[in-house]
Write a structure and sequence with these properties.
With 612 residues, the chain is α+β, with helices and mostly antiparallel strands. 31% of the residues lie in helices and 12% in strands. GO terms for molecular function: nucleic acid binding; zinc ion binding.
C-alpha cells in the first residue's frame, strides 16, 4: 500500500492508485457547497514558482519546481492523461500528442478553442484543461491514442477541483462498494465533504473537502472516524529507478539505474552501499525508511506562511520594522546597458522564496548570486543617467535628448539665410523645437512674483478700506471752546452812616489772579487746536499718498501681466534675453524698493508721496 501512494501535480493530479476505476473526481464539481464566482481567465504561460530566485538546495525541491505546471484557469475542468507503453512525451512532441488526444475524444477544432492542453515532461503526463463539462467528459473517456500509426494505451481521469483539500480515513470496511461509501460519507453531517474514493482494495479512503481545511473527525454513517491530512509521496519509478515519474508512465523502462548508488543498468549480481538521493540516508532512494519521501501539504504551507506574515506584522507594529510579504514576491530584474563606454546598472530587486516553495537560479542575475562585475545600486538611484537606456519590468527610461533653439536676430527686409549659413548650420531663423528649460523657469518665477504683488495689493486695499471706514464713522471734529466762570470774590460794602452829603464813586476792584488763569487756559486751548489740525492734515496727506501708490502699483501690475503673457507666447532666446530679463527684474525690484521707501518716509514725516 505504501508503494502505491505516488506524487502527482500539486493540487491537481490524483492518480488511479488513489481512487477506483470510475470517472475520478468528476462528481465533485457538482457537489461543491460553496461555488465561487467565475474569475477572469488567467494566462496559461506563466509558470508557478519555477523562477523564484536561487537554485534549490535539494533534489526534492528541484523535482517539485520542475514538475509544476503553468498557471491554468481555476474554474476549468482538468483531466490527467497518463500514457503507457513507453510513450515518451518529450521525444514524441506534446503537440502531436495533443492532436491525437483531441481526435480520440471526438472533438472538433471549434469545440476546443478555449481548451488548454499542456505536458508535464518530468512526470511524463498530459493535462487537459477545459471550461466545458462536455469536453471534460470526452477527455475522461479516452482509453488509447494513435500516434504515427501506433496505438498507445492511456489512463485518463478527472483531477480534483481547485481550492480543495484531501484527508485520509482508515479502517473502513473493504466490502463496501463505491455507492455505499459515498452515501455514508457524503451527507449533511459532513458539510464540507465533496466526494470519497477508496485506495484500490484497501481499507483506506481518500475524502475530498471543499476549502483548505481538513476536519479532525468525519462521520461515516453513525461512526465518528478520525481523519488525517493526506500527504503526497515523491514520485519514484521502480522500472528505471529514476525520480520524477512512476512506473506506469516510464518512457524508458529498459534503461534503468540503481536506486542505491545510481549505476546505469546494474545486473542481478550488483551489490552497493545504498544512499538515498532525497535525505542522504543509508537506504534506497524514496524507500519507506526515508523521512523526506513525503511532500509538505499545500494546506500546511499556507498556514506556515500565514503565521510568518502575522509574526512579521506584529514585529512591524511593535518595532516599526518593515513586514515581510505574505507570499514570495515576484523578483524584478533589470538589464544593464552600455552607451559610449559608460556602463550603468539598475538594482535587481529579488526577494528570497519562502521555505517549502521551490526556486531555481535565474541566469545568475539574483542579488545573492549575481554574475561577475554586477554591482547593484540603491533603490533610490535605480534609473539610468542621461544618454543611457535601461529596461526593467513595468518601467523603462528613455534616452534624454538635448534641446536647442537658434536665436532669431533682426534681419534686413527681403533677405534670408544664405547657402553658406545653411552649410555651416548658423541659420538666423528659429528652427522650431521646444523652448529651453530656463524660459519655463523664468515664467514660473514671474508668475510667483505676480502672485506676490497681488497679495500685497489686496493687503493695501484692505488697509485703505479700514482707514476710510474709520474716517466715515468717526469724523474728526474740532473741540468745543472751554468756558470758564470767573469766581468773583465777595466785596465788603461798608455801611456808611447816614449823612447829608453823597459819597463819591469808587473804581471796581479786579482780582489779578483770576485774569492770569484765564489767559493761560486760552493759550493751551489754542495750542491744542493747532496740533490737532496738523495731525488731521498729516492723515489726509497719508491717505492721498496711499491712493496714488495704489494706482501706480495697479499700473505696474498690468504691465507685468502683459510682459508675462508676451513671454509665454513667444519663445525665449538662449542669449541676449538673459541680460534684458535680468535688467527688467532689477528695474522692477528697484521701483518696488523706492515705492516702499516713500511709504515709510511719508508715514514717518507725514508728507505727500512724489509721483514717479
Amino acid at each position: 500500500m505504501a508503494t502505491a501512494m505516488q506524487v502527482t501535480v500539486e493540487g491537481e493530479d490524483i492518480g488511479p492508485a488513489e481512487i477506483s476505476e470510475s470517472a475520478g473526481w468528476i462528481t465533485a464539481f457538482s457537489r461543491r457547497k460553496s461555488t465561487s464566482s467565475r474569475q477572469t481567465l488567467q494566462p496559461c504561460n506563466v509558470p508557478r514558482g519555477a523562477n523564484k530566485g536561487a537554485a534549490p538546495a535539494s533534489v526534492r525541491k528541484r523535482l517539485t519546481a520542475a514538475s509544476r505546471l503553468p498557471r491554468l484557469p481555476t474554474e476549468h475542468f482538468r483531466v490527467i492523461v497518463r500514457p503507457r507503453g513507453g510513450l515518451d512525451i518529450k521525444k514524441t512532441g506534446h503537440f502531436k500528442i495533443a492532436q491525437a488526444l483531441i481526435a480520440a475524444a471526438g472533438l472538433t477544432s471549434g469545440e476546443v478553442e478555449e481548451d488548454v492542453i499542456c505536458p508535464n515532461m518530468i512526470q511524463n503526463i498530459m493535462v487537459a484543461s477545459t471550461p466545458s463539462e462536455r469536453n471534460a467528459k470526452a477527455y475522461n473517456t479516452v482509453a488509447s491514442l494513435i500516434i504515427d500509426n501506433v496505438t498507445y494505451e492511456v489512463n485518463a481521469y478527472m483531477a480534483a477541483p481547485n481550492n480543495t483539500s484531501k484527508g485520509v480515513i482508515r479502517d473502513i470496511d473493504p466490502t463496501l462498494d463505491q455507492d455505499e461509501l459515498t452515501r455514508l460519507i457524503v451527507q449533511p453531517r459532513n458539510p464540507t465533504v465533496i466526494a470519497a474514493r477508496r485506495i484500490k482494495s484497501t481499507s483506506s479512503v481518500i475524502v475530498l473537502f471543499d476549502g483548505l481545511k481538513v476536519p479532525e473527525y468525519v462521520k461515516c454513517g453513525p461512526s465518528l472516524v478520525k481523519c488525517s491530512l493526506y500527504r503526497r509521496q515523491t514520485d519514484i519509478c521502480y522500472a528505471c529507478g529514476r525520480l520524477g515519474h512512476r512506473a506506469d508512465v516510464c518512457p524508458s523502462p529498459e534503461d534503468g539505474i540503481c536506486r542505491g548508488c545510481g549505476t546505469s543498468n546494474p545486473d542481478d549480481q550488483h551489490n552497493c552501499s545504498p544512499k538515498c538521493a532525497l535525505c542522504g540516508g543509508n537506504h534506497l532512494t524514496a524507500s519507506r525508511d526515508c523521512k523526506r519521501r513525503f511532500q509538505v501539504p499545500y494546506v500546511v504551507r499556507q498556514r506556515r506562511r500565514a503565521r510568518r506574515h502575522q509574526k512579521s506584522q506584529e514585529a512591524h507594529d511593535s518595532t516599526g520594522a518593515e513586514p515581510l510579504p505574505p507570499k514570495s514576491a515576484i523578483s524584478r530584474r533589470s538589464r544593464s546597458s552600455e552607451t559610449r563606454g559608460n556602463r550603468y546598472r539598475v538594482l535587481a530587486e529579488d526577494n528570497s522564496p519562502s521555505p517549502g516553495r521551490a526556486s531555481s537560479k535565474d541566469k545568475g542575475r539574483s542579488v545573492s548570486r549575481g554574475r561577475k562585475g554586477y554591482k547593484p545600486d540603491s533603490r533610490s538611484n535605480g534609473r539610468s543617467p542621461s544618454r543611457s537606456r535601461s529596461r526593467s519590468i513595468g518601467r523603462s527610461s528613455s534616452r534624454s535628448r538635448k534641446l536647442s533653439v537658434s536665436i532669431q536676430e533682426p534681419a534686413e527686409q527681403g533677405t534670408g539665410p544664405t547657402w553658406a549659413d545653411r552649410v555651416k548650420g548658423q541659420t538666423k531663423k528659429v528652427t522650431g523645437g521646444t523652448p529651453p528649460e530656463h524660459s519655463n523657469t523664468r515664467v514660473a518665477q514671474l508668475e510667483k512674483e505676480n502672485a506676490l504683488l497681488k497679495r500685497e495689493m489686496q493687503q493695501l486695499r484692505a488697509e485703505i478700506a479700514e482707514l476710510r471706514n474709520a474716517t466715515k464713522h468717526n469724523p474728526v471734529q474740532p473741540p468745543a471752546p472751554l468756558q470758564y466762570v470767573e469766581d468773583e470774590a465777595p466785596m465788603e460794602v461798608p455801611v456808611e452812616e447816614a449823612s447829608s452829603e453823597r459819597p463819591a464813586k469808587k473804581r471796581a476792584i479786579v482780582d489779578s489772579a483770576c485774569s492770569s488763569s484765564a489767559m493761560k487756559a486760552k493759550s493751551e486751548i489754542k495750542d491744542a487746536i493747532e496740533s490737532l489740525s496738523i495731525t488731521v492734515g498729516a492723515i489726509k496727506a497719508t491717505l492721498d499718498g496711499l491712493v496714488e501708490g495704489f494706482s501706480s502699483l495697479s499700473l505696474r501690475h498690468d504691465e507685468l501681466e502683459k510682459h508675462v503673457f508676451s513671454m509665454s507666447q513667444t519663445p525665449d532666446p538662449t542669449k541676449g534675453k538673459k541680460t534684458s530679463s535680468a535688467s527688467a527684474e532689477q528695474t522692477a525690484a528697484a521701483s518696488r524698493g523706492i515705492f516702499y521707501d516713500q511709504l515709510a518716509f511719508n508715514h514717518n514725516h507725514g508728507s505727500k508721496p512724489q509721483a514717479d
